[in-house]
Input
Amino acid sequence: MKPAHRIASLTGELCARRLALARERQIALDPNRPKANDCNGKIKLDLKKTFGDNEERHKHELIRHMDNVTIFQCHAIKGELECHTTDQKKKTVDKAWERLKAIKISAALQNEQFKSLMPKTVRKTYKNLDLCFIREAFKIAEDALTGKDNPLRTPDDHIIKGFPQLGDLEPTGQWWPRNPAELKTIDPKEYLNAKIVLRKKPPGWMTKENMIRLYEKAEQARAKGLFIKIDKEDLECNPVYAFGVEQGAFIVQADGSKYYLKIRMCLDFRRFNASWQATEFMRLLSNKNITTMTDILFNGDIATDPTQKKFENCPGRNEPRDMHADLKPEWRKRILNAHASGKITRKVGFLKTDFSGYYHQFPVRDPKLNVAATWNPFKMEYEYDQGLGMLFGHASSPYEACRISEQLMGIINYFFEYPAAIYIDDTVALTTLDDCAERTENIRKLFEMAGLVLAEEKLETTDKDGTLEVLGMEYASLNDGVLFYPPEKKLDKVSECAAVVKYQAHPKKYNDPPEYILELPDKRELNQKDIQRFCGVVIFSTYLSGNSRFGALLRPIHGWCADGVVEKLRFHEAERKMLARQVNTVEEQVLKNPPLKIWRSPRRPQIWISSDAAMPEKDERGLIPAMIGALFGSVEQGYSYVAEEVDTTSLQFMTKVHIGVLELMAAATALQVFHKPLQGFRVCFQIDNSGAGCALVKGYSSCLAQQAIVEITNEIMARFGLEVYWVFVKSAENNSDYTTRPELLRHFLNTFPGSSKKEANTRKLISDINRKYGEIIRYLGPWTAYTLILRKQKKTPTQNGPDERFKFEPIALNLVPSLWPDLWTCKRFREKWRSEIGLLERQGPVRTVRSQRPASFKESVKTRAKVTKEDKKTTRQMGRHGRH
Output
């Protein structure tokens, strides 16, 4: 937000700008009618028209951007809440089967017409799959829920000719369209006319045993009619090469090696996918969607988000990703009424099933372009097969399959009123233990009616203990709610990957390492893949968690994943020890991370609060200090506000403040001051700075100063048990904007004379920020902090040059002597540090903060360029043998 001009200096053009801003606020202005204390009678503010019911003002914004649940699932949840007896459920199911059978009969006539137009390969691939029935049933459901006539979401030519493979994905209107300006021009002829170059060697990283198993997979596909073997001379384009990926359960053999029971055939479609692009945003309904449905079922509000992992409404993402988002306000009312009339009192469970060979049931338009090359380990050469259906690895396969999956999900939601979601080919439905068997049978019959093949061995339901593993996460059904957490095997994998990295980083600490570490090919060498594997397992194990700390905890470890970092710092003992400590910290936090709890409890009422900040500025009176403010209350109950000046010179790590830091300080202050009246409510917090809002939602920021304030804010919310949902609003709609402008604040107090001012302890907040900033720097380590801080100065986001906001942070690098005194006592470390950063020589571990601004990035580059050959030689020697 740009610095606001004071009303005291409003003349000419500035007055016109304020009038325009006031119109956006819907403030009634009368420039010709004077009033006392209103800035020389130039404007009059009717604030009572501005301050209304916040929930009514922003209700649409909250719901419009909630992409975690569809209107089909809202209809199913509403039906689940309204059906209380067995007779009501039976009537719903019987009516659904009557309607579906009628649709099946009408779709059979269209199927006969289409079959006469289909090529032989398309008819052979479909087998019993009935896309006409699926799209007709989905159209009936969509028309009923939207109240308008919608087109068929599967085009005729896709059913008759097969699904296209090259070019742009044909939009159907089922998903939100991509911005045409972001799409590139694709010419499929570049791939078709490319010279055919065939490989002669197998994948070098695959074992001979796995190559045999992969070849057996290809033979099975030929036996099922999915592959048609062709000669090398018949190739019309470059083939895609197959490789095997080990998955699932494994057996530990006598020699200690792992034998995976399943190997999946994957195909390298990278060159092929370069000639295809999506024109719509694909919607994957995974665990986040299931947790949201569970929460709505218990608490009855579709505006609820169990884990806010993104900023719903901010510049650059003003459009929803749901084609029916404008219907969400009406569905919210219906679900609230249904929840008030009757709540779910039975124990909620889950069922899941899986399709068999899902991709292979969708025919491709041109099988000659769908050629897979598989290595024959017996003849020691590649064999080539035409795939009649979609193959695993093509970018269009999940798009086309998920379209059909979402249509099937809509049929289950609408006709049977079962809250369910389908993630590609995995179907997950909410149920009760009493109805589990019946719902499983109905879903099975529906899929059989659609001609889909189910994997019977993957049909699972909530067991007696109330647990079920769904999409890699464990669901525990309790009498009063549901717990979501990673299974034990995932946590064991986190510990295993952490032990590998810690042993490689600091092998001297382990006298008796585990056996799986000793089996590594090179036990003492840091491996970039092992670090990446650890980060990936941690992210998967914590993404379904209300704790947002893991992004910040993983930041320095992600730094080791960059190319060249491991080779540069592998022999630096201090850095390796620090990596081991960082990995150990992340492991401890993951193992202690509590499960996500969704309880059957009274719905928390919403309450609104806002905050704002203003940058320092100069006018004829001199320098006006930075301001932070917050506003809480309502027109009926009265307002309480915070309006405090901030002494930014007390922030030890900066010489210049930027607005993002002040906005976060205002948010932390608001929660600290008003924590008592906010407890027990779902707090909708308005903030008008998208960068600060995104940092609060994600739990970390690339700016370390903002990161410190975010962690302090999270500590405040945890200490007082606050449930906060961050909502972005424009500056013109942020009521706290009045608290940071003294003249506007006077008009506000004249309008609401009963408002009370709350005092905020900004000195303590600044002290906490300084302390937290030091903790962050200490955790990151000197070289990671150096990379994060100075990397910002290399960016030039505007035509005016480098981003000035991040030039204050290099002064924080002066904290190194006090944070790592053991490193600073080493002469070679000081020489290397000064050569990289260009700081003046320091004597001993005593910290001295420079009053002047540190050297800019360009000056640092010049300083590094002046390093002599002798210094470079010393640095290289320290890298090889540097022990402190």
The first helix runs from residue 13 to 24. The two ends are 47 Å apart (CA to CA).
